[in-house]
Amino acid sequence: MKNIGILVYDVSLTGGAENVAINLSEELSKKHNVFLISIFDKLGYFPSNAVTFYNIECETKSLTFNLLHIAKKLRKYIKDNNIEIIMNITAGVNTVSLLATAGLDSKTIYCEHSNLYNQTYGKKHIFRQWLGAKYCDYVIALTESDKDEFIRRYNIKNKCDYIYNWYESKNNRNTYDENSKSIISVGRLEKVKGYDRLIEVAKIVLKENPDWVWNIYGSGSQKEKLEKLIIENELDKNVFLKGNVSNILDLYSEHAFLVLTSYYEGLPLVLLEAQTHNLPIVSFDCHTGPSEIITDSVNGFLIDNGNIKEMANKINLLIKDETLRCEFSNNATINIYKFEKKQIIEKWFNLIEKV
User: Fold this and answer.
1) Kind of pairing, strands 300-303 and 51-57?
2) Alpha carbon of 347 to those of 327, 351, 352: distances in Å?
3) N or C: which end of the chain has fewer CB within 10 A?
4) Cα–Cα distance, 56 to 74 (Å, whole number)
5) Whole-prediction pTM value?
6) Cα gap 209→172, rounded to integer Å
7) SS3 breakdown of the chain: % helix, strand, coil, rounded to 5?
């Protein structure tokens, strides 16, 4: 049994990375002593009894200007609790972790939640990725393709691997509605999700198929811009921004297929959610994730990243060909085994023993 620290920026944000930190801490606590450490915790988080929780700061501050102060407090906590391994969830916490563990016997594992291709987070993020790749004891990418990119860029073959996020299906229904005339897209209304590209695709698709609708679930800073684009392109009778909903898993089965138009992804769990509800998928083959979930022309279509015309053509093909939609639906879950919880957790336990 080892003492393991899982370090996250702000666990109370409950986004993808934060959920990974919480879920992983709960699972690892079944065999190890786990300390879930949040640099900030502005909302107040309460873990299960199996996990020890520590927040360094209650209020969000500039990590850059408070780096030494925060690293000093983390270092003391590591020493006081004899923490042997620190797992950095996202590149954003690499600077704090590496400063705090300098000169200690504690090992560091950098767990990338996005990918190396995504340049939208700025120069600080790119630096923190480099720092983690160069100086952490081990690097875990989220996908196999990103692992290969880490090795190519930083020559870290001997200390780099990939582990998928696991996905637990809560779907008990195995039916597919071949009569549905609704398309679904799910994700934050942010630039990286490519909703500007979705509008361009929708203009072509819905002109040919005015009896179809396209529902977009999610919220974010791009909402007003997208509302304006929808109106400007006369799509307001067919494209709808549905906002965040608590029952998204109940809504997949009302749709004919899912479309993903992102510029970048980490490992898009919305694709796995759609597949477990037997939906075909049309997705840009962006970095990273879609190509490791979708088998092209078997359970969906992978489109060259940014090829608007080709995506529109494939969507139109699915709309017109009910038999093809049903065929893709029948094959939807052929790759789900790769993301089963049991084998993913086993990989984490093996990594801890290895480190």
Assistant:
1) unpaired
2) 33, 6, 9
3) N
4) 7
5) 0.90
6) 31
7) 45, 20, 35
